[in-house]
Amino acid sequence: MEGNNTNKIISSLCYFSIFFAGFILPIAVYFIVDDREVKHHAKRALFSHIIPVITIPVIIMFAIMVETMGTFGISIILGFLLAILINIVVVIWNVIKGIQVLKTY
Question: Half-sphere exposure (CA, 13 Å, Cβ side) for 88?
Fold first, then answer.
């Protein structure tokens, strides 16, 4: 039972690491821990941490590109709002998944 609680905490920390360790903790857990379920959660957490890193620059670049067409700042504002929305959704998703892992298993 001790190992199960430890695995549950490590798995949930992978999701909560969006607040304090970003990519480092899920990557470290994935390569260090042998449990298949913990590796699964570490991989999912890592991919969810990567989503804003990929989408935000794409949105900003698209907004700047559209701005050069003469939309007077609207596209840049909408781009930043969309980037903020993506970050909020990713953070909420990670918190929900971290809590779910703590409750189940």
Answer: 6
Instruction: Tell me which residue of 61, 57, 63, 56 sits closest to 83, measured CA to CA.
Output: 56
CA 24 from chain centre, in angstroms, equals: 12
In whole angstroms, what is the distance from residue 3 CA to residue 5 CA?
5
Weakly modelled stretches of the chain, pLDDT under 50: 1
Let me know: does 52 contact 90? Beta carbons within 8 Å.
yes
Ranges of H-type helices in 1-105: 2-16, 24-32, 36-67, 74-103
Two tokens at 27? 């990557």
Amino acid letter for position 84: I
Tell me the whole-structure pTM to 2 decimals.
0.82
As a whole number of angstroms, the distance between CA 11 and CA 35 comes to 10
What is the separation of C-alpha 32 from the centre of its chain, rounded to a whole number of angstroms?
20
Q: Which two tokens stand for residue 70?
A: 């003469």
Q: What is the pLDDT of residue 3?
A: 62
